[in-house]
Amino acid sequence: WNHTGAYIAAQIMGRELGFELPDISSLTENLVDAPSMDLAVQLSMQSVLNEGKIAVYEGFTDRNIKSTTNEAVTEFNFRDISADAGGEKLLILGDSFSGTLGRYMSAGYEETYAIFNNNYTAKILDEYKPDVVVFETVERFIDKMLSFDINKSDL
Hints:
- The protein is α/β, with parallel strands linked by helices.
- The chain is built from five helices and seven strands, in the order H-E-H-E-E-E-E-H-E-H-E-H.
- The strands form two sheets. It has a five-stranded mixed β-sheet, covered by helices on one side.
- Helix 3 (97-105) links the parallel strand 5 and strand 6.
C-alpha cells in the first residue's frame, strides 16, 4: 500500500463515517523518494523492490494538521492545531500502513492516533478516549480479527 491506496481507502471510509475527501485528481501530487517497504525489507530485496518515487498528496483538507511520530515509527499522531478542543478523535490500530492511512483520515477528525496493533493495550483506549476505532490489518494477519477484543491488552 502506498499513499494512493491510503487516500482511496480514506475516501471510502470517510464516506461511511460522515466526511468527504476531494477527488484525488484535484489534489497536488508531490513526488518523494520511496522508503523501503516492509515486504522488501523482510525479503532483503530493497534494491529490487524499490518504487523509486511515490506520490504524496496535499490539499485534501483545510485543517491545519500537525503530525508527530515516536522514535520507533510505530505511533503516529495527527492533530488539527487550529481546532477548538472537544472535536472527534479517531484511533487506528494497524500496521505500517496505518500512519499513511491516518494522514488522510485526519481530514475528518480533530485528532487521529494510529498505533501498530502489536503495541496496543486497553490502557490506550482509556487514555485516548476515541470516538471511532478502526482496526486495519494485512491479509496475512486477518486471523487477529477473529480474536480481537478492544478491552484486552493483547492482540
